[in-house]
Amino acid sequence: MKHRIAAAAVAAAVLVGGGIAATAAFADDDGRGHERTERNEDRADDRTDDRADTDDQADGRAEAGRAADDRPVSLDRALAAALKAVPGTATEAELEDDGDDDDGRDDGRRVWEFDVYGKDKVWHDVTVDAANAKVLSTRDDDNDDRDRHAPRSASVTLVTAVNAALRSEPGTVTSVDLDDDDDDDRAGGGTPRWEIEITGDDGREHELRVDAGTAAVTVDRDDD
């Protein structure tokens, strides 16, 4: 009888212990499962954040690319293309919208317009795409009444004058013109000068004058 009671007690203890062990095992498995779920969720969140960062970077590159596309090619590059098409001396350069031109088109394209006194002793109008420096058109201007002596009397070239102006006022050149008028207060008179308009790095418009004989720069204070 005592033996049966002892056996029953042992069996009960085994069952109770097994239940406790099973419960502990289940609890442990549940805890590990919960940890795995949290880790998976964290990894998913990290991947989402990474994708968002990648998208932001792509948007930034695209925006930078659009900004770069909006900037005109340098005046040097556009002028080189113009003079390759029409060898001679450039006396005027203007950055403008194509719709402002007299060809009637308005496609939003910006162009450089150059006046070139050719080696053939004829004035030419040359249009260069401001986006890629491609020459769009050249036109002879036989009726131009400009002084044909002016280009030869300017020892300082357009490019040299522009570089001198940019050293004085950094920014983007939008207009250059060789002015040979005598009705001003220049000492001695008769010496041409370059009139250059620049959109400064400060966003303001500036007009500078560069002596066509010495490259000396003066600022038109009326525009300040």
UniProtKB/TrEMBL annotation:
Pfam families with a match to the protein in the record: PepSY
Biased segments, Acidic residues type: 93-105
Region: Disordered, residue numbers: 24-107, 136-156, 168-224
Residue span, PepSY domain: 72-138, 156-217
Signal peptide: 1-27
UniProt keywords, alphabetically: Signal
Alphabetized InterPro entries for the sequence: PepSY (IPR025711)
Basic and acidic residues compositional bias, start-end: 29-51, 58-74, 137-150, 201-210
Gene3D superfamilies named among the record's database cross-references: 3.10.450.40
Protein name per Swiss-Prot or TrEMBL: Peptidase M4
